[in-house]
Design goal:
It contains 2 helices and 7 strands. By secondary structure, the chain is of the alpha+beta class. It has a single domain, classed as Nucleic acid-binding proteins (OB fold (Dihydrolipoamide Acetyltransferase, E2P)), CATH 2.40.50.140.
Amino acid sequence: MKAKNKIALVLVGVLLLTLSSFKSITQEPLTIKAVYDGVEDYGYNFIHTNNEGDERTIIFQEIKEDVLASFDLESDELIGENFKVTYTSTTVTETDEDGFDDEVEVLTIIKLEKIK
């Protein structure tokens, strides 16, 4: 009986250690309507107007290759165009040079549709 308890305790410990080692959390995809505002070194900029009429620039750090192949976001031709943007938000834990953990939100475009 003691052996079963020890095994169960070890399995619970391994499970907890495994769960605590996950470094990123991805949420369900979200969709917004936004105007393309160009690309910078830090990401792809879109201007979104919320329900209250407030404009906000949303920066997407990553984009799926198939989306980038369909839309040349590197050129200035699409600036000012309206898009339906479907994206995921992933929280990644990064460790800085001093050993401190910092949570960073990474937005990834997974689907892009041009709208009028």
